[in-house]
Amino acid sequence: MMKVIFEVIQKYGQKGYFLNAEALKHPMVEKMKEFIAGEHFQNLINPEKRLPIYFFSNNATLNRWLNTAAYISVKSRSHPEIFAN
């Protein structure tokens, strides 16, 4: 099983945009047969920090997801507008 964990810091006031971007990606990844689960956590001390976690059954599935046109499109449109880092 492959686990992807990353911390992101949203620009102040961009929570809605972040959640919308994630809402666009989640149905796409759920269609993948080997996708297991995905969760998002918010930092209690700094609410601008988020911790998305995804679980895939194997490395090939993770690589296939990261190279899909849909994932790349959503990521490229959202990253500069939403994230501080």
Question: What would your notes on this structure say?
Answer:
With 85 residues, the chain is α+β, with helices and mostly antiparallel strands. It has a domain at 59-85. 45% of the residues lie in helices and 26% in strands. It is built from 3 helices and 4 strands. The protein has helices at 15-30, 59-66, 69-82; strands at residues 2-5, 8-9, 35-42, 49-56. Strands 1, 2, 3 and 4 form a 4-stranded antiparallel sheet that branches. The longest helix is centred in the N-terminal third of the chain and has 16 residues, at 15-30. The radius of gyration is 13 Å and the shape is globular. The N and C termini lie far apart (28 Å). The model has no long low-confidence stretch (mean pLDDT 81).
Which structural traits does this protein have?
85 residues, alpha+beta, 4-stranded antiparallel beta sheet, 4 strands
List the helices and strands and how they pair.
Blueprint: E1 2-5, E2 8-9, H1 15-30, E3 35-42, E4 49-56, H2 59-66, H3 69-82
Antiparallel strand pairs: 1-4, 2-4, 3-4
Q: Please, what is the oligomeric state?
A: single chain
> What composes the largest sheet?
4 strands, antiparallel
Average pLDDT score: 81
Strand content: 25-35%
How many DSSP E strands?
A: 4
> Please, how many helices?
3
N/C terminus separation: 28 Å
Short characterization:
The chain has 85 residues and is α+β, with helices and mostly antiparallel strands. 45% of the residues lie in helices and 26% in strands.
